[in-house]
Design a protein that fits this description.
This protein is globular. The two termini are 25 Å apart. The protein contains 15 helices and 20 strands. Helix 2 runs parallel beside helix 4, helix 11 packs parallel to helix 13 and helix 13 packs antiparallel against helix 14.
Length: 487
């Protein structure tokens, strides 16, 4: 996460007013930059450098200086509705910005006015309003005859998340009202009751995008959690468990850029991959686990981080715009660097980091994920060797809950407090340690080994993965992100 944030700073171009140039689109990437860096700052305590923040605030004001308050840099791109709203929400939440609050409300009302009776948005009017030509990318602005099924995950679907997050930051009732309208539309159009991905979205002639689809799922889930409407929570949980795996993501975390029509292929004809959707799906699992009690999904969160996101991050100190990045990659187990993708991964990792440990209203600490962290109340260090060791140091007398991974052999689980064995008291997948029992807690468990095979959808190329716990220790044939031989 630290390296990803450092790479975000390295992408600011001093020859172009410190704009994030060279990526997908300056306006889009400006929104991604703000959202990632403010979330990172909140999670890590590391402030954005003053000069970078001042330059990017000037850029943001310039790029949103239009009647819709939409991020735009030479063209009207409805893809950026989400990024603009997330930026305003982050500035309100972390900087108490009255300007961002007013700008966000302006964009919300513009969106509401341009939403047609059938749920599609009038993209042409949006372009006229901001005075810039509409993007020619059909992924972003396909318009369908009224009354027909339509795919809008690339515009209003992904924007749903931004609306819910903006409402949470500002209390703007109109944002939640518009989110409700869009949520109903996308529950009908983007979700299949079976839990499978809608066949229309997977059709060979459908121009769609896995990250936008995942963004739509994120927005629908957040709306359901914000309102308590089980229809949305259950629909996304059903889609997560039945539809995503094998289509939108592999067990080890490969996520194709394209959904439906393959617009960008590698040399074998497979859709190229991108890491942002892997982070999206890890966050869906995190929210379902911690906000809806489906804690078995925390195993997915840890696996996707350990088996895909961490080994896929570039380490290249000689090239700052690569060092710490993720991106859009050709090899199914490859690496790459592009700002909108790695900023999205930083966004996801910041959320995951902040939920390694959570605090209940009574002060009980829950250790949800086995990653290192240091807080005023607790210090956690995770080590993996022949077995897994989680060392926890309590800085305050607190009751403690410690999750044990679902794949760990129950008979291997061993708990000590201040060097003395402690009998195991289970609460589901969590072990309980009473307040005042001790200060240094050590959890040990085995790392079972297994093998899986992943087959690519077009070439049918197979990759045989050997696992130890939730980490890949080798792959046959060798691939860029894993060691060639078992450790």
């Amino acid at each position: 996460m630290d390296q990803g944030a450092k790479c975000c700073l390295a992408w600011l171009n001093p020859e172009k007013d410190f704009l994030p140039t060279g990526g997908y689109e300056v306006a889009h990437d400006t929104g991604r930059w703000w959202d990632a860096m403010l979330r990172y700052e909140a999670a890590s305590g590391v402030r954005i450098p003053t000069q970078a923040e001042a330059a990017m605030m000037a850029n943001l004001r310039r790029l949103t200086d239009n009647p819709a308050a939409l991020l735009a840099s030479g063209k009207c791109n409805p893809h950026n509705l989400r990024e603009t709203l997330l930026t305003y929400a982050a500035l309100v939440r972390y900087r108490k910005s009255a300007w961002a609050d007013a700008q966000g409300r302006k964009l919300v009302r513009t969106m509401a006015e341009l939403l047609e009776p059938d749920g599609q948005m009038d993209y042409e009017r949006l372009a006229q309003l901001i005075g810039q030509p509409l993007t020619t990318d059909k992924l972003m602005m396909l318009h369908y005859p009224q009354g027909q099924w339509f795919n809008a995950v690339g515009s209003t679907g992904r924007a749903l998340e931004g609306l819910v997050v903006f409402h949470a930051a500002t209390g703007d009732a109109e944002a939640l009202k518009l989110a409700g309208r869009l949520a109903e539309i996308h529950l009908r159009n983007s979700i299949d009751p079976s839990g499978q991905i809608r066949p229309e979205l997977l059709a060979a002639d459908c121009i769609s995008h896995t990250h936008s689809y995942c963004g739509t799922l994120r927005g629908l889930l957040l709306y359901g959690l914000a309102t308590g409407d089980r229809r949305f929570i259950d629909a996304i949980a059903n889609t997560y468990r039945k539809g995503l795996w094998g289509h939108a993501i592999s067990y080890s975390g490969w996520t194709p850029h394209d959904q439906g029509k393959t617009r960008f292929a590698n040399k074998e004809g497979e859709p190229i991959g991108e890491h942002a959707s892997c982070g999206d799906i890890a966050q869906l699992a995190l929210w379902l686990a911690l906000r809806d009690g489906q804690t078995d999904l925390l195993d997915d969160v840890e696996r996707l981080v350990r088996a895909r996101l961490l080994p896929s991050q570039i380490s290249d100190p000689a090239r700052p715009r690569n060092d710490g990045a993720w991106g859009v990659y050709g090899h199914p187990f490859g690496k790459a660097s592009i700002l909108d993708v790695f900023a999205a991964v930083v966004h996801s990792l910041a959320d995951i980091h902040e939920n390694i440990v959570t605090t209940a209203p009574d002060g009980t600490l829950s250790v949800n994920l086995h990653f290192d962290i240091e807080t005023p109340a607790i210090s956690i260090r995770s080590q993996r060797a022949k077995e897994a060791t989680l060392e926890i140091k309590l800085k305050e007398a607190r009751a403690l809950r410690i999750r044990v991974p679902g794949w760990a052999t129950k008979s291997s689980v061993h708990l000590t407090v201040d060097g003395k064995d402690l009998p195991l008291t289970w609460d589901g997948s969590y072990l309980l340690v009473a307040k005042g029992t001790g200060q240094i807690i050590q959890l040990r468990h085995d790392l079972p080994e297994k093998q899986t095979t992943e087959e690519m959808p077009v070439s049918h190329r197979q990759f045989h993965l050997s696992w130890r716990g939730d980490e890949v220790i080798t792959c046959d044939p060798p691939v860029p992100i894993y060691p060639a031989q078992a450790r």
